[in-house]
Amino acid sequence: xxxxxxxxxxxxxxxxxxxxxxxxxxxxxxxxxxxxxxxxxxxxxxxxxxxxxxxxxxxxxxxxxxxxxxxxxxxxxxxxxxxxxxxxxxxxxxxxxxxxxxxxxxxxxxxxxxxxxxxxxxxxxxxxxxxxxxxxxxxxxxxxxxxxxxxxxxxxxxxxxxxxxxxxxxxxxxxxxxxxxxxxxxxxxxxxxxxxxxxxxxxxxxxxxxxxxxxxxxxxxxxxxxxxxxxxxxxxxxxxxxxxxxxxxxxxxxxxxxxxxxxxxxxxxxxxxxxxxxxxxxxxxxxxxxxxxxxxxxxxxxxxxxxxxxxxxxx
Length: 315
Ligand code: MRU
Fold this sequence. Notes:
Number of strands: 14
Mean pLDDT: 97
Oligomer: single chain
Bound molecules: 5-S-methyl-1-O-phosphono-5-thio-D-ribulose
Strand order of the largest sheet: 6-5-4-7-10-13-14
């Protein structure tokens, strides 16, 4: 994979992000100098993706200094991805907050690399990958989780192409996944979310790989809305359904998917007819039984996922 600009970086006294609200039209760098600029960037998805908002949150704590209220605003800016509060709390508990935040960033880069390698070894014969949302270099400090597997395959010279669900309502698939894969020279086909079951029915997909925002202790996962529908369709058509994510997304404190707080977003993102009521969850929960395996930085975790997750967090 060619060198790329990181989605989130530390300049020494500020955070630089690629403003993802402007992609694919414009690649503009945004400099965040205050905790409330960090909160705003996370809330409006200028920086997004569970690992990337974790890293932004960690660095945001450095900007916040001793302002406890500002730190809490960062930690609660988006509720579903466990990485955000996990990273904030880790930095808060450290003697040297700046060093700890930078360690979280570096660990994310390395976790992406390891996920890619484990996924590549697991999915050696899979060429046609169906995915949802954006899980690549825009969603992490490194080269991504589910897309990290794709990049690892491409780097190893294995044939690989991606089918990207457009990902309503904010089009992270159509805008971001298509943009970064084209930039990397990897073939990508965008489809409407509702077209995915028909594509699976045609036998045109070897594997589905999704990312995750939180993995509960029993292996249920929360990820971008539409993931659950993909998992059901993959199960129906006998296509393996993998979930990729770093250990920072595994959450032993949440027993099952039923306990995961699902972020509700503004009605404006979906309503076109004035006055129509709107239900706009940003994420859904896919139960563990629909997941073939979890690809993590410490290896591929298989059913029963509960004990495998507990083991991964203590290894
Ligand atoms: O609302 P978003 O764009 O932050 O949602 C992101 C996702 O659902 C990703 O799949 C998940 O964070 C994993 S990113 C490696």
